[in-house]
Amino acid sequence: MSGKALNIGDQFPNFTADTSEGRIDFYDWMQDSWAILFSHPADYTPVCTTELARVAALVPEFHRRGVKPIALSCDNVESHKGWIEDIKSFGKLSSFDYPIIADDKRELALKFNMLDKDEINAEGIPLTCRAVFVVDDKKKLRLSILYPATTGRNFDEILRVIDSLQLTQTKSVATPADWKQGGKCMVLPTVKTEDVPKLFPDGIETIELPSGKGYLRITPQP
Ligand code: BEZ
């Protein structure tokens, strides 16, 4: 049995859970911030340790964007608290400043379709895959990525996507392949030619292509 698949734009369901920082109601914990909820197969595993250490080092970067990180792993609070000491040691961290949800009964893993049926633990139970959910301040799902248990995530890429999400929700642009903060952007296909001067007073560049359709319009990042 698994939960309903969540699509981008869906309301992200609220939940309550025990965490390494006490019991939380997810919406109350978020307050008016965005959140990144990312799941892990299990405590005391090597790839997960590198991921949690990386996110701990990036906490200021997430906070600068108004995003609160929260991890989930299918072990209990006691186990999480012990593991955090290993993560701090591995990452040479003086503190560990975000909660880890204790989903030892896999209730949230099921609810949010996070189980990886190809990765089975010693008891024959599927482990959680590496799911990433970015939820905005209106509690809407804005990004969802699933990685297999055997591939660690690139959190610089997730920060890059958050930058794109936050830029494109207020400006009439989309960000191209490999875009980074400050890079050139694409004028949205829905922007009419007559609206370009008003929206992009510094002008845009239209790339000529064999089709002659003029759809590839580039602007400095607004
Ligand atoms: C890990 O975190 O290293 C890991 C966990 C489960 C399966 C494979 C790798």
Beta fraction of the residues?
Answer: 25-35%
Largest sheet descriptor = 5 strands, mixed
Hetero groups:
benzoic acid
What global shape is seen?
A: elongated
Uncertain runs with pLDDT below 50, 5 residues or more?
none
- The CATH architecture of the largest domain is 3-Layer(aba) Sandwich
Termini separation: 46 Å
What is the CATH homologous superfamily assignment of the largest domain?
Glutaredoxin
How many domain modules?
2
CATH topology of the largest domain: Glutaredoxin
Compute the CA-based radius of gyration. Answer: 20 Å
Question: In CATH's first tier, which class of the largest domain applies?
Answer: Alpha Beta
The strand count comes to 13
Instruction: Please state the structural category.
Output: alpha+beta
Per DSSP, the total helix count is 6
Proportion of helical residues: 25-40%
Domain Thioredoxin: 6-167
GO biological process, one term: cell redox homeostasis
Protein name: 1-Cys peroxiredoxin
Pfam family, one: AhpC-TSA
Care to describe what's here?
This protein has 222 residues and is α+β, with helices and mostly antiparallel strands. It has two domains: 10-167, 3-Layer(aba) Sandwich (Glutaredoxin), CATH 3.40.30; 172-219, Antioxidant, Horf6, Chain A, domain2 (Antioxidant, Horf6, Chain A, domain 2), CATH 3.30.1020. It has six helices and 13 strands. It has helices at residues 26-30, 46-64, 77-91, 107-111, 155-168, 196-199, and strands spanning 16-19, 22-25, 34-40, 67-73, 100-102, 115-120, 126-128, 130-135, 141-147, 173-174, 185-187, 205-206, 217-219. A five-stranded mixed β-sheet has the order 5-4-3-8-9, covered by helices on one side. Strand 6 and strand 7 form a beta hairpin. Helix 2 (46-64) packs across helix 3. The protein starts with 15 loop residues before the first strand and ends with a strand. The structure holds benzoic acid. Residues 41, 45-48, 119, 127, 149-150 line the site of benzoic acid. The active site is at residue 48.
